[in-house]
């Protein structure tokens, strides 16, 4: 069956798979959000130990999902990988740095002889959770606002802006999307920590976290509203004929939402679920908010990633040279490779299943003070 | 295709990739190897219920965790650098090269990441059996990641299962099984993982030897050494066997690399290996200088390694650069001519297609197809540019082989003294034991240098030189990120060494 899929279906399927991985990554940024809450919600060493150990058992999942997101894009849309990474150089290098410093911080923070001290590694975690997520948001924002590149006839990229990608962070839309992701990650982080820790011995931290979930959600709202309203009103980069010509189309993304009404449903249901998660966490003693907030984030994330690619749209548009813009049709791997990778993707449900099973197995008992003081991270 | 390139930018990008890969390679072999040994220790604990084995398992797990974190941190840099510094490469071969990277993420990294948390924090949260299962899964996941990254690397050395598509102007996959089951991939994986087992064995032997010298944790150290020496001895046998296979694959697919690692300028029948020699670094291809300041060759062995036959002909650098009609070897000079024809035809094809001139484009395509196997040579400025650094390749290879010969003898010594229970009396041998981890690290790094420096000037052997594979960046930009990485790596390395030595000094009780 997979062998019979036509090229366009494979291209759509692989953008969907990449988007699912990307959306799952956005959910898993509760780790990054939690990192930025550390100094705010954990006032004692015991509280810090609880937060770090709770997040420390998940950071690798987030990290691995990001690596898979990159790997899947490389395999399925190599022209995007080459154009964006080779062109928007500085934005990717800085994102990379924030994740390198995260990877050692959990393990090294409390170890004797760690050179940078406990605070140094906590600062690394904060930078990863704030600057890292902000820049990822700005990079995703360019799917809508465009980037500054030209491609040669051999598809080699030439970036036309001296800031080599960092200019993305100075667009109000991109910045708003980035800040929304930062505060959404913080909201998710608070919800996850409420779910994962036994607060019998640290009741004050529970109160702080429940308040943090609400406050961060409220702060994220103006950024979300700006992004959503802009999306509905802005011009988009559409494919306007059979030759693949790209042109600016009025209210393109509104048109995409209406043409794919299931995306509108995803967006609305996603937003409702996030709000429900926040209220369950902040206004009741429920610990289940993360599941609503998480699923909601996945649905909103899916909409954000699918909207600029489906319905004959250029997902990585060029402001410098419209016809250099990347679409799922001109940026993808060959049909052979996409078919092979589709067979491989059959493994995804199995991977998700064992990740979920292990998550349940490890987290069915809440993390206690006794378990982390003197042990773990 | 490429009108202008800045060689200094290319060299800085190469330096940056080499820095990252070699730094990454300090930590990865230990992860690959020690996970199996820890799983073995953990199995003994679950089987016997002995607290001593549990302490031992937890101790080595702790050291593994410190090493693992920095391995993860540096691994992601390599994935990014393919895109940031080698974007033309990412585009031109992403259709083939991206697949193993994505599969590595999906199949291997998730296994590692999921079960890593259970392995470290599952002692009182899951059943003993599931906990043990998780430890084994970390070992499986780590080594599966090695499978896929080495499949990708092997394809760069021996690009099978692909064809160049003139319309998309990139290499595209034709056979996934050819890529995955390439003999180069198989030999790379078996050689690398067995060498990693050996390195992990020496990691344990080094630390345990130090404990014995200090007369601390004697029981744990002796037990650790016994298991590690057996693992090390078995692994060193595999290393030798797979090394021979790897050399054979190099001879068949990358004869220039073989000639460079043996400093062989003029091809010979009954060619010998250099048992000991000092390379003349002033020698240039084609001149009359001697290749070595002195050398001791063992005749026939290189022919045997390369072709499984003593008397067979092994081409030298001069044969591969200038050709050898008698042995039917086409030289780089002729390949460059064909490569330039292919490039011109490709350029003409693209232009004619754009104009809509079907007849002319078909003619150009036919010329291109006749010469496309030499496409990469079209980018070389002169035949001598096809030669990698002989000095670096030769020295790295011979350091690796010398150390590889020493390793089984040391393992055998540890096994013998352990069985006789006289290790504590052999202080000189324990002193050597403490050094073994560092010597095996040197052997690993040397192996990596042989593989990658010997491949130059190619990113993809014979198809894509590094000068084309690069991104469109200025030298200053790449220099800046090189030093950013350098400083970060230095800080992290100092932190890692200090943390590791402190934990070793604390020992198993306090962990």
> How do the strands line up in the largest sheet of chain B?
1-2
Total number of helical segments of chain B? 16
**Ends distance of chain A:** 48 Å
* Helical content class of chain A: 55-70%
> In percent, how helical is the residue content of chain B?
over 70%
Oligomer: heterodimer
List the topology elements.
The complex is a heterodimer of chains A (377) and B (511).
Chain A: H1 7-28, H2 30-41, H3 45-56, H4 59-76, H5 78-87, H6 89-108, H7 117-145, E1 149-151, E2 157-159, H8 172-196, H9 203-233, E3 236-239, E4 246-249, H10 252-259, H11 261-283, H12 289-306, H13 335-345, H14 347-363, H15 369-372
Antiparallel strand pairs in A: 1-2, 3-4
Helix pairs in contact in A: 1-4, 1-12, 1-13, 2-3, 2-7, 2-8, 4-5, 6-7, 7-8, 8-9, 8-12, 9-11, 10-11, 11-12
Chain B: H1 7-48, H2 51-84, H3 87-121, H4 128-157, E1 162-165, E2 170-173, H5 176-180, H6 183-213, H7 218-253, H8 255-261, E3 268-269, E4 273-279, E5 292-298, H9 301-307, E6 313-314, H10 317-322, H11 332-355, H12 358-371, H13 390-419, H14 427-453, E7 458-460, E8 464-465, H15 466-469, H16 475-506
Antiparallel strand pairs in B: 1-2, 3-6, 4-5, 7-8
Helix pairs in contact in B: 1-2, 1-4, 1-6, 1-14, 1-16, 2-3, 2-16, 3-4, 4-6, 6-7, 6-14, 7-8, 7-13, 8-13, 11-12, 13-14
